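Per reviewer request, we include the raw input and output of the structure prediction for the construct analysed in the revised manuscript.
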Amino acid sequence: MAKSFDVVVIGGGPGGYAAAIKAAHLGLNTACIDMYINKHGKPALGGTCANVGCIPSKALLDSTWKYHEAKEGFEIHGIEAKSVKMNIGNMLKRKDDIVKKQTDGVAMLLKANGVTWLQGRGKLLASKQVEFTPHEGDAEVLQAENVILAAGSEPIKLGVAPLHDDIVVDNAGALEFTDVPKKLGVIGGGIIGLELGSVWNRVGSEVVVLEAMDAFLPMVDRQISKELLKNLKGQGIDVRLSARVTGTTVDKNKVTVEYTDSEGDQSVVVDKLIVAVGRRPYTVDLFSADSGVNLDERGFIFVNQSCATDVPGVYAIGDIVRGPALAHKATEEGVMVAEIIAGHTTAINYDCIPSVVYTHPEVAWVGITEEQAKSAGDDYKVGSFSFAANGRAAAANETAGIVKVVSDSTSDRILGVHIVGPQASELIMQALIAMEFGASTEDLQMMVFAHPSLSEVFHEACLDVDGKAIHSAKRKRRK
């Protein structure tokens, strides 16, 4: 007789394991199927995020920024550090230790909450049956009252730049360089490419980023993206826009990258090449043709606002459905679905999901950009303020960047907040909380912000929306 569960989750990444834990909290008999095998050949939970994405990349970003600061930024503080060296092996070991702690922690949480962790591949069949194929052994069929598909995404492969040993790599390979490449190429000027390029630039690589689009980070507010691009170029990262790669050749541990731009055919020779042109939903063999689950025109599983598929009792979350491919979005969708399965009423406000680029300075945003407001024909107003005028930023020698606020001219409600600057990933949460509660610009203007603090820049940007910024030399007639 087939094993039966109230909930079977396929995928153990941020969305899947959160859904499984929440379902267990709610008293549901839950199994989580995950097929991931880490670089040591062992099953590991946490998905791309914990194993080869969010967590290890941030570990390297933090390590390399501390090295860069010690080497280049300590002197202004009166700290003399003349012989700072980076031990790449120790840096990678620390990264691996953090990953292990995170993935082991997820396994502990599943066990502590009574979730059955099934190590292998899961496939949805008709009538909410799930075929489970373990890494070793024969397949079996599970019966589920509810199924949550949370298989995540995979790197998009580029035919003109096939992966080659440790020379041409994807995001996972870029976390494992044991030596600093003298010259590093990055195909793709998106979030992943910029973060990984920043890691190796800080420890000595000459980094060239080839971006096919003619706009830099087009999903980001133009003023903010221009500010980031200026800072990255100042750090020595060579970002080439409208550069469409046409071919790559590996010879004697060098990669020749051919591309075209506005001036015609070009080429660049690098020691290592990272292919980071985006990710796509992983739906390969995830469900059978007769399961009843359908894909939309972009290859994502079709779901409604509650992440329900066309099959009653079957849900899909995270990178395999519409919306931004963000770990925190997947997590909250997993929690929401578990609540719905348990009969509770809940929802996600998709207009209030923050995004972050963990370069230095960081970039973070929530809501709409000025360009989107203009394109929609909205009657809007804008305010901005620079970290250069902030005492706390000056004390920390972190004065690059600005905060920008977009508000509705009629209702005064905040429509979007965009930050490039120190601790943008933390500061954006103040904006998100305000927007979630429908705050007006005036609400933020009237609040008392601690001094000295970086958050004062957000306060001043809100004041500037109506020409009332205190620490600004520009004078704007008050409406």
